[in-house]
Amino acid sequence: MNEERNRKECSQCHQQKTKDEFAKKQWKKPNPSCYRCAEYTKFSTDKTRNCHQCKVSFPREEYAIYQWSKGSEALCSKCCDQVTETFMSKLGSEPDHVHNDDGTSFCAHGSEHCDICMVDFTLPNMIARKRNKLGRDLTQNEHDALFRKFNENNGIFISRKVCILDGQSMCPRAGKKLRCPCDEVTYCSKACQKHHWMIHKMTCKWHLENQEKKKAKKEKQKKNAVDELTEEQKNFVRMEAFLAENNGGKGSIDECAHQLGEHPLVIGGGTIRYGPDGEEFVKGDVAKIYRENCGAEWDGAPRFGLRPYVPRKNPEDWIAKARQGKSQRQTDFEKGYEGKFGVSLKDAAAAGGNPPSRLQTAMAQARAAVDKVETGGTNMTSEQAIAKLSPETLAFMEAQGVSGDKLGTIAKALMEMKGLGDDGINVD
To answer: Locate the MYND-type domain: which residues (predicted)?
Structure first.
């Protein structure tokens, strides 16, 4: 009983249809039209119609739905089959087309566009007539104008009310219609939409606009992130990319330059030097490099003279590295330099960049040790430090009049310089 309630006969195709094959407004009518008939046929109460070719009157069932919608030009199923047979018989044979001296062409029936002959000479004839009128070959702009006009007059009509996959095996022909946001195609279910998406996404204006917006937003965020970096931070990652490229990290310079929005030769043509602030990066002069090596003037483009940038599979986030400041490599290098020579890299660079003498190193180490002891940076007590001194050192201290707290401080400083080792320090 419920099944009968959910089925009605279409007033046009006279077939029993389920409720989801009718629009809501149509379902409420006493003589409803299904989705397909409402879209593809003109509403008619006619039970029969004369065939345009054989002139015989046939009932509605003898016409295909697309033919019935043509009204007085409709062909019955028998005549449609004859047209198909005529077409199939002509396949592989030379067509009887007429090619005139003025460049225009027509089919055997004298038509530019013929469904029977399956030809369309409309566009070639438009070009030929335009060329004859001007008395010369057409320019590219004139060709494009004719092509646009041809497309306007011969546009492909896509129904707004019927699923674009209607009639296909995967189409369930559900009643609810889903319209793509681009307003170009309609689907009857999510299954149809997913199946057709691989094709439609190539032309979907809504999808393309969204992609452009996302790309523009990403580029803006990237530019803002770069603008927030200081030149010092940029130099940190330029130096790291330069060293990575020269130690087997292929593509590091290209990748870093792309993220910073600059030419790779800014990094690749640069140098590393030791300045007052430690390691410093000197940017490459791109214009000078092109002028001297290529005989060309750089136009300022970030990929001038290079192929388009191709991202690596696992790209490095050089912007994030720049925000971190000095790399662990730079920090370790500076600490190692100071530990070896007893003076900071900055002080050494200010003094001319030469390593300090042994006396300068010893004095610097002593100053650092005393500072550490006086600020409570060591856990060793005075008694423990004095106990570790050799007898010769103690005798030397007593001879100099050093005792009490002062002796304890010096002993702890000496132990700090020794690295809190087990051996005593003999001061001569």
So the answer is: 168-204
